[in-house]
C-alpha cells in the first residue's frame, strides 16, 4: 500500500507540474495577445514550442501580405494623386473618404479638414445637389467652378463597391473654348455664304426666265447649277439653325403652341414636297393636346421628320402622322413605308452629316443635318427622339414630350 500511495503521489505531482507548465505558456500567450508584435512571439517547450513556431510563421506571412497591400495602396494613391482629373472617394452616405490634389484644387477640398464631411456641404451648387440626389449618373454634369467663374468643370459620379461612389472632376475650359470657336466659325462662314449664294441663285433664275438668254443646249447645265445652288443654300440655312440652337444665349421662348394646327400645316407642306407621289395623311390627332414651347422650332422639327419620311419612301408609299397621349407623355410620330434602316445605323442617325446611304442622300437633296436639328430642338423642349425601323419595311420616328411641357385643352375651348 505504501508503494501504491507513493506512485499516486508521484503521478499527481507530474500532472500538476505539466498543468503548471501549460498554464505558464498559456499566460505567456495571453500576455502576448494583448500586444501582438512579431519580434515578441514567446518561446515555449514541447507542444507549446510547435504552437508558438506556427504562430510566428502565420504572423510573418500576414506581415508580408500587409506590407505588400500597404505598398500597393501607396502606389495607387500616388498614381491617383498624379492624375490631372480630380478624384473624390465617397462612402455610402456621400461623405468624403479621400481625394487627390487635383480635386482639392478644382473643388476647393482639403483632406486634412474635409475628410468625413458630406460632399454636399462643400460643393453647394444647386445643379450638383440635384445631380447627387437624382441618383442617375449615366451622363456627366457641366457647371462653372464656384471658385472661378471662368473655369468650366465636368463632374461625373461612378458607383462602385457597396454603395460607394467615385466623383470624377475634369477641367473642360479649354474644350469649351474650342467648341465655341467651332460654332462661331461655322456660324460666321455660313452667314457669309448666304448672300453670295442668294445672288448666284437669283441670277441663274433670272437668266432662265429671260427668253433666249440661255441656249437650249446649255439649259441642262443651268438646271444643274440651280439645283446645286439650292442645295448649298439649304445646307447654309441648316448650319445657321444648328448654330442658333447650340448658342447658350439663345434661351427657349415658350408660348402655348396649337400643335394640331401646326401638324395640319406640316402635312400640307409634306404633300407639296411629295407632289402627290405619296399618301401623306393624319391617322390620329388629339385636338385637345397642346405644348408649351417655341412654335418655329417645333415646326422645324416636325417638318424635318415628315420631309425625311417622304424622301426615303418610294413613290406610292404612305406617310402616317399621329399626335396623341401615351400615359402622361405627348407623342408626335411619323410612320412611313419606306426603305427602312439597318439597326446598327440607328444610334448614329442624329449625328451631323451622318448618312446611311450617301448616294441616295445626294439624290433626295438631304443635307445630313435634319435629324441633328430635330435632336437639338427636342432636347430644348425636354423631349427625346425614338426610332424604330426594319430594313425594307419602313420606319417610325417619334418625338416624345415630357408631361411638364404638355398642355391639355378642355373640349369647350
Describe the structure.
This protein is α+β, with helices and mostly antiparallel strands. It folds into 4 domains: 2-79; 83-171, Beta-Lactamase; 177-246, Helix Hairpins; 255-408, Histidine kinase-like ATPase, C-terminal domain (Heat Shock Protein 90, 2-Layer Sandwich). The protein contains 12 helices and 13 strands. It has helices spanning 2-34, 47-82, 101-107, 111-114, 119-122, 126-134, 173-209, 216-246, 259-274, 295-311, 358-364, 370-380; strands at 86-90, 96-99, 141-144, 152-160, 164-171, 255-257, 279-285, 289-293, 318-326, 329-336, 383-390, 394-401, 406-408. The strands form 3 sheets. Strands 2-1-5-4-3 form a 5-stranded antiparallel beta sheet, with helices on both faces. A 5-stranded mixed beta sheet has the order 7-9-10-12-11, covered by helices on one side. Strands 6-8-13 form a 3-stranded antiparallel beta sheet. Helix 7 (173-209) runs antiparallel to helix 8 (216-246), helix 8 packs parallel to helix 12 and helix 9 runs parallel beside helix 10 (295-311). The longest helix has 37 residues, at 173-209. The N and C termini lie far apart (124 Å).
Amino acid at each position: 500500500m505504501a508503494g501504491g500511495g507513493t506512485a499516486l503521489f508521484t503521478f499527481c505531482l507530474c500532472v500538476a507540474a505539466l498543468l503548471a507548465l501549460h498554464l505558464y505558456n498559456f499566460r505567456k500567450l495571453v500576455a502576448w495577445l494583448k500586444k501582438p508584435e512579431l519580434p515578441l512571439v514567446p518561446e515555449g517547450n514541447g507542444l507549446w514550442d510547435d504552437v508558438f513556431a506556427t504562430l510566428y510563421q502565420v504572423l510573418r506571412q500576414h506581415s508580408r501580405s500587409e506590407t505588400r497591400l500597404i505598398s500597393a495602396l501607396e502606389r495607387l494613391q500616388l498614381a491617383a494623386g498624379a492624375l490631372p482629373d480630380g478624384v473624390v472617394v465617397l462612402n455610402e452616405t456621400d461623405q468624403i473618404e479621400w481625394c487627390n490634389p487635383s480635386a482639392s484644387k478644382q473643388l476647393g477640398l482639403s483632406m486634412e479638414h474635409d475628410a468625413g464631411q458630406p460632399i454636399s456641404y462643400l460643393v453647394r451648387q444647386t445643379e450638383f445637389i440635384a445631380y447627387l440626389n437624382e441618383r442617375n449618373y449615366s451622363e456627366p454634369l457641366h457647371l462653372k467652378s464656384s471658385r472661378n467663374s471662368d473655369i468650366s468643370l465636368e463632374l461625373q459620379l461612378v458607383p462602385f463597391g457597396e454603395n460607394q461612389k467615385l466623383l470624377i472632376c475634369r477641367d473642360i475650359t479649354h474644350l469649351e473654348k474650342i467648341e465655341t470657336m467651332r460654332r462661331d466659325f461655322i456660324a460666321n462662314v455660313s452667314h457669309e455664304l448666304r448672300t453670295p449664294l442668294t445672288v448666284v441663285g437669283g441670277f441663274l433664275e433670272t437668266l432662265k426666265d429671260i427668253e433666249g438668254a440661255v441656249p437650249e443646249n446649255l439649259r441642262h447645265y443651268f438646271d444643274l447649277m440651280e439645283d446645286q445652288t439650292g442645295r448649298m443654300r439649304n445646307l447654309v440655312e441648316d448650319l445657321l439653325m444648328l448654330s442658333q440652337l447650340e448658342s447658350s444665349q439663345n434661351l427657349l421662348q415658350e408660348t402655348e403652341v396649337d400643335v394640331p394646327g401646326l401638324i395640319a400645316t406640316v402635312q400640307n407642306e409634306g404633300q407639296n414636297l411629295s407632289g402627290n407621289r405619296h399618301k401623306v395623311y393624319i391617322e390620329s390627332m388629339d385636338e385637345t393636346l397642346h405644348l408649351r414651347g417655341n412654335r418655329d422650332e417645333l415646326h422645324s422639327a416636325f417638318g424635318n421628320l415628315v420631309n425625311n419620311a417622304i424622301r426615303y419612301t418610294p413613290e406610292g408609299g404612305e406617310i402616317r402622322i399621329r399626335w396623341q397621349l401615351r400615359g402622361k407623355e405627348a407623342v408626335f410620330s411619323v410612320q412611313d413605308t419606306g426603305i427602312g434602316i439597318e439597326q446598327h445605323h440607328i444610334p448614329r442617325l442624329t449625328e451631323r452629316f451622318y448618312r446611311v446611304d450617301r448616294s441616295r442622300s445626294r439624290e433626295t437633296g438631304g443635307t445630313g443635318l435634319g435629324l441633328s436639328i430635330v435632336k437639338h430642338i427636342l432636347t430644348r423642349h425636354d423631349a427625346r427622339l425614338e426610332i424604330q425601323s426594319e430594313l425594307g419595311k419602313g420606319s417610325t420616328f417619334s418625338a416624345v414630350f415630357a408631361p411638364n411641357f404638355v398642355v391639355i385643352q378642355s373640349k369647350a375651348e
